[in-house]
User: Which sequence fits this backbone?
């Protein structure tokens, strides 16, 4: 499918959203702004699908556990299911309390302009970031949009700078936590399986334990993040659970423990059977992690659909609420049609434009196999759980990409410890350098040998440069520095760019509205 056809299909989806919004509003006053917001919401949802969803399935694709087509099907189904089943029926209209409702002076149309501007600004930045192959936080994009729209409406004094400080902190906390946890899991797998003399026996022992830990982590993650908005409905059906509005860590961990125990009991004999006939090569060990990776991609997609659909439909639901009630509310009900725009839009964007970022996350930062991807997926779930319980602000995008960074840098560190042993070219060049140094040290300080000494010093200098070039080349094989710099730069400018765009769009919409 060429780019023109993709754009036509995407525009068609936005047109359907606009048509439905028009059929709802009819001839109501300012109804055209709901139509406009529906287009912006559909555009935003498609960009979330094109950019953010790559973090959930990219590692599985890069490792070879899933094909791009398979990943798109799984992600599309589970993203939509998460949005429609567990996306909730109420959303906060002003994302994360970053601006005060007083910014709009009780004028619902100022609020409509600001939310519409936030949607379009965030979507435009996500579109550009996807084109640049930079996975960025869609939450931060919409936060920047709301911030810019709010400032344009009510001035800079209405901003909650404490909340903004937490968002800035997440730029550091998220990737660092994700990177450390992913590196730790990869190191455990390498030390307890790959570096063991009998890798098959080690795999029989450790793989069921590791997958059980993953089952516990993802069950806990899914309960805390994927089911939190429908938890009252769940406890109503499962009356043996503590009756509460939201799942607690204790309940989520208990359910995670049960699933982990069941996983271990079922998996242990299967792994023992599967390793029969294997020779213990790393490629064979990798295959043992394929199925867990597929499940993790599906569960991450479900939780993402349940949580991040609000980034697409929250402002749209807010606009609908403001236009129908002629008031500014801090919370708004999400009509089914709005949730469909978000859930289906994410899947449409993933199918049409997602492969670009899936390839970037899966293979263009560092080379992944199933073991490395497993470590990344574990980090994605565990970091969110830890951070949410510690009250730390994190971004799921930054966590996942930070985990990839962590895996790449660990590979580089481990390889650098055995550089001369593992890389023949490096070994040859180091041997040459040693010979040159030995020849230099054997020279006597005589007039006849000064010229030879100078030649050897120059040769040593050139040899050191050659070795440095080889080291850099080997480093790039582990993690692409250029990609790391580009992605971090995109993270840093996401909020200010979205805010600046939203402020400008707000002014245009306000003029149109007048």
Assistant:
């Amino acid at each position: 499918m060429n780019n023109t056809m993709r754009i036509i299909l995407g525009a068609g989806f936005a047109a359907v959203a606009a048509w439905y919004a028009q059929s709802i509003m009819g001839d109501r006053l300012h109804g055209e702004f709901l139509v406009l917001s529906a287009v912006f919401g559909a555009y935003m949802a498609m960009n979330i699908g094109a950019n953010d969803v790559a973090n959930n399935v990219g590692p599985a694709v890069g490792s070879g556990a899933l094909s791009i087509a398979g990943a798109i099907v799984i992600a599309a189904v589970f993203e939509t299911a998460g949005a429609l089943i567990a996306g909730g029926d109420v959303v906060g209209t002003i994302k994360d309390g970053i601006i005060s409702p007083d910014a709009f002076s009780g004028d619902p149309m100022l609020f409509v302009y600001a939310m519409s501007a936030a949607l379009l600004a965030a979507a435009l930045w996500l579109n550009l970031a996807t084109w640049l192959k930079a996975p960025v936080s869609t939450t931060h994009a919409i936060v920047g949009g709301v911030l810019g729209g709010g400032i344009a409406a009510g001035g800079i004094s209405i901003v909650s700078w404490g909340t903004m400080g937490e968002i800035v902190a997440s730029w550091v906390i998220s990737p660092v936590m994700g990177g450390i946890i992913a590196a730790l899991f990869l190191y455990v797998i390498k030390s307890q399986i790959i570096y063991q003399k009998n890798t098959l026996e080690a795999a029989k022992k450790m793989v069921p334990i590791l997958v059980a830990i993953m089952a516990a982590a993802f069950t806990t993650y899914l309960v805390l993040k994927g089911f939190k908005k429908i938890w009252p409905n769940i406890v109503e059906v499962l009356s043996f659970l503590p009756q509460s509005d939201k799942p607690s860590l204790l309940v989520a961990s208990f359910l995670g423990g049960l699933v982990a125990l069941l996983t271990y009991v079922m998996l242990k004999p299967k792994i023992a059977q599967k390793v029969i006939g294997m020779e213990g090569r790393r490629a064979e060990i990798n295959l043992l992690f394929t199925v867990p990776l597929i499940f993790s991609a599906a569960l991450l997609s479900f939780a993402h659909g349940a949580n991040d659909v609000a980034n697409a439909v929250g402002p749209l639901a807010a606009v609908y609420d403001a236009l129908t009630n002629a008031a500014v509310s801090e919370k708004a009900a999400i009509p089914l049609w709005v949730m469909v725009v978000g859930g289906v839009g994410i899947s449409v964007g993933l199918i049409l434009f997602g492969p670009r970022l899936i390839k970037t996350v899966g293979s263009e930062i560092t080379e992944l196999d199933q073991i490395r991807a497993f470590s990344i997926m574990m980090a994605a779930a565990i970091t969110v759980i830890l951070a949410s319980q510690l009250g730390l602000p994190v971004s799921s995008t930054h966590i996942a990409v930070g985990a990839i960074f962590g895996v790449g840098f660990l590979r580089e560190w481990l390889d650098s410890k055995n550089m001369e042993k593992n890389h023949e070219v490096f070994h040859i060049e180091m041997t040459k350098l040693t010979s040159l140094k030995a020849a230099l040290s054997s020279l006597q300080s005589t007039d006849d040998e000064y010229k030879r000494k100078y030649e050897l010093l120059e040769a040593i200098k050139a040899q050191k440069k050659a070795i440095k070039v080889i080291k850099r080349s080997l480093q790039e094989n582990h993690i692409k520095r250029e990609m790391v710099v580009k992605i971090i730069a995109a993270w840093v400018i996401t909020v200010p760019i979205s805010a600046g765009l939203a402020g400008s769009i707000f002014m245009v919409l306000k003029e149109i509205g007048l």
